[in-house]
Amino acid sequence: MDILVLVLGILLLLVLIIKFKFNTYVSLIITAVVVALGLGMAPAKIATSIQNGIGAQLGELALVFGFGAMLGRLVADAGGAYRIAHTLINAFGRRGLQLAVVLASFIIGIALFFEVGIVLLVPIVFAIAAEAGVPILTLGIPMAAALSVTHGFLPPHPAPTAISTALGASAGLVLAYGVIIAIPTVYIAGPLFSKLAHRFVPDAFERRGNLKALGPQKTFKLEETPSFGISVLTSLFPVILMAIATVYELVFHGGKLPKTPNGLDNVIAFIGSPSIAMLISLLFAMWAMGYARKLPAKAIMTTLEDAVKSIAMLLLVIGGGGAFKQVLIDGGVGDSVKNLFVGSGISPLPSLQFKCNTLTTRP
C-alpha cells in the first residue's frame, strides 16, 4: 500500500508540473501533503515533518549553493569566463576548436550553474563558429556536454553535493571520482556524439540559430577582463581546496580523518569542507574579480545580491524535495522501498541522481 501511495504521489507531482505547469516547489509541497495524508500520518504532524525535511535538506547545501552562485556570478560579470573561453579557443586554433570549447566549458562549468554557463557561452560559441566557418552544433554539443557533466557529476553542484551529504561521503573524493568519470563522458557525449549526429542528421548542422532568444547579451572588451591565470584560479579555487584536503587524507591517513586529529589535520579538514572551501573561494573571488580591479564595494555587493536572487527558487525546490523525502520517511515508505531493494542487487541511487539533476534545473 505504501508503494502504491508513493507511485500515485509521483504521478501527481508530474501532472502538476507537466500538465498544469505548477511551480515545482509548490508542486512538491502539495504532493508531500497529499502523500502524507495517503500514508495515514496524523494531520497535526504533517507540517512538522515538512518543516524538518526542508531544514535538514538545506543545511549545508544552502551555504554551498549560495556561495557557489556568488562566486560564479563574480567570475561571469567580471569577464573571467569570457577570458577563459577566448584564450583557450585562440590557443588551440581552428583544428582544436572542439577541444578548446570542451576545456573552457568544463572549467567554467565547475564555477557556474548549468543555465548560467549556457547563457554565457552560447554567444561565444555562435561568434567563434561564424568566424571559423564551422556549424554551430559542432561546438555547441561539446559545450553543452561539458556543462551538463560538471553540473551532474562534480561538487559543489546540487546533485553530487546533495548525494554526498546524504551518504556522508567525502566531497573531495566525490569530486575526484567525478572528474575521472567526467572525462570520458564528456568526450562521448560531446565531440564523439557530434560526429555521429552530423552523419545521421546533417540538416541540423546547417541551421544558424538566433541569439535573440537568450535576451540581451553582456559584451566585454578582452583587454578589460581579468587575466587568464587569475580567471582559471578563481573558478577552480574551491576545487583546489577540496582536492588538497582529499589528497592529504589519502596520503597521510588512508582517506579518513583520524579519530584524534592533530592541529594540521583539523586545519586541512576545515578548509576542505565544502561550505568553508566555498566561503574562502568567494572571498578570494571578491578580491580577484572585484577589489583588485578597483570595483567599488557597492557594485560587488550588487553582484552578490543578484546571484542569490538567481538561485532563490532553486533552494526552495531543493527544500521542497527534502520535505517530500521526510514525509516518505515519517510515513514509513522509506522502509518499504529499502525492503523492496534488499537482495535485488539494484541500487536506488541512479534514480536519486536523476531526480536531483532534474529538480535542480527546473524553476
Brief characterization of the structure:
This protein is mostly helical. The protein is 77% helix and 0% strand. The chain has one domain.
Explain this structure to me?
- The chain has about 375 residues and is mostly helical.
- It has one domain.
- The protein is about 75% helix and about 0% strand.
- The chain has helices spanning about 1-20, 25-40, 45-80, 80-90, 95-110, 115-130, 135-155, 160-165, 170-200, 230-255, 265-270, 275-290, 295-330, 335-340, 350-360.
- Helix 5 runs antiparallel to helix 6 (about 115-130), helix 9 packs across helix 10 (about 230-255) and helix 10 crosses helix 11.
- The radius of gyration is 22 Å and the shape is globular.
- The chain starts with a helix and ends with a helix.
- The relative contact order is 0.16.
